[in-house]
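Hi L.,

You mentioned the student needs an example of a multi-chain input paired with its predicted structure. This one should do, with 168 residues in total across all chains.
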Amino acid sequence: MFHSKVFVTLKKSILDPQGKAVEQGIHSLGFEAVANVRIGKYIEMDIDTEIKADAERMTKEISEKLLANLVMESFSCSTEPVIE
Amino acid sequence: MFHSKVFVTLKKSILDPQGKAVEQGIHSLGFEAVANVRIGKYIEMDIDTEIKADAERMTKEISEKLLANLVMESFSCSTEPVIE
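Structure written out for the whole complex:
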């Protein structure tokens, strides 16, 4: 069994209005030093397989096909064995 | 200058219908081995300070006050210097 984490972020060239709104919220809390807030998605999943390479390949394929819109978003992922 | 990453996830005891929907999508793509899909938020920000402890404290405070709803969500964060 493996546990995968996928981080999906908007590409740098794409405006992030949600991030801008959160940034304004952070400033209004008094944290003026904060800038360039970007919001992304964080997806976790368990994959029932014994082979790490299989789990990594599946995670990458799922990210490309379903989780990330590669026109606007990029992703990174990591896969670790589950210690039971 | 420091770069902070915050991961906000629903607590284990809270149902995640969005994760369930994504899980069904993953299964319908043919990845039957995937289970326990959970969706969270991933927030990145730059913090303009010279002191790492300050950046870490700010990240934690912002997460607690604004980014995470601690009744339903938990968060983890990391802060690294920006290499320019």
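You could point out the following to them. The helical segments of chain B are 17-28, 52-67. Chain B touches chain A at residues 7-9, 19, 22-23, 25-26, 29, 31, 33-49, 58, 61-62, 65-67 (CB under 8 Å).

Best wishes,
N.
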